[in-house]
Write a structure and sequence with these properties.
Helix content: 40-55%
Strand order of the largest sheet: 2-1-5
Mean pLDDT: 93
Shape: elongated
Number of helices: 6
Distance between the termini: 61 Å
Low-confidence stretches: none
Largest sheet: 3 strands, antiparallel
Length: 164
């Protein structure tokens, strides 16, 4: 909740003055809504801040936000790069398996092959889906819905049932 008095925001736990009267730092917390209203304080709900990843954001004096969408082409370039970086970061720890296969012929475990292919596929689809968007809302929906695969090292352990 934001408190306003004569067009200015009153921060919580900060003393303030009004019409020659000084109010202590805890007054806003302790005063009833009626006491605040009696001196002209209005309560404004806290509005959720728009996502800075997608908008240029500024707060208005009344506590609302102005959100101007960032350039879609620029966002697409940035996010494509981020997706590629994520894929690279996810693949890097298992690159040694590929090197070992190349150097000495040791097979890459099937779960790792599947995982590595899933990472590459997820990256390609994320970029393709994102590139196909025509407006900021579709773009946000696209990039925030990407589900990256889980590494075989991070799969939950399933305990085998005891055999009788």
């Amino acid at each position: 909740m934001t408190f306003m008095l004569d067009g200015r925001q009153l921060p919580l736990d900060t003393p303030f003055e009004n019409d020659g009267t000084s109010f202590p730092a805890n007054w806003l917390r302790l005063a009833t809504p009626e006491e605040r209203a009696a001196i002209g304080i209005t309560e404004i709900p806290d509005y959720p801040r728009p996502d800075d990843r997608f908008y240029w954001v500024s707060q208005n004096p009344d506590g609302t936000w102005t959100a101007i969408p960032k350039d879609l082409a620029g966002l697409k370039t940035t996010w494509a790069s981020q997706f590629r970086q994520t894929a690279w970061t996810m693949l890097d720890p298992s690159d040694w398996l590929v090197t070992r296969k190349t150097e000495i012929g040791t097979e890459i475990p099937a779960d790792w092959l599947s995982y590595r292919e899933a990472v590459r596929t997820t990256c390609a689809l994320a970029i393709s889906d994102m590139e196909a968007t025509a407006d900021i809302d579709a773009f946000i929906a696209s990039v925030t819905s990407v589900q990256w695969p889980v590494s075989p090292d991070n799969q939950p352990v399933v305990e085998a049932a005891p055999q009788e």
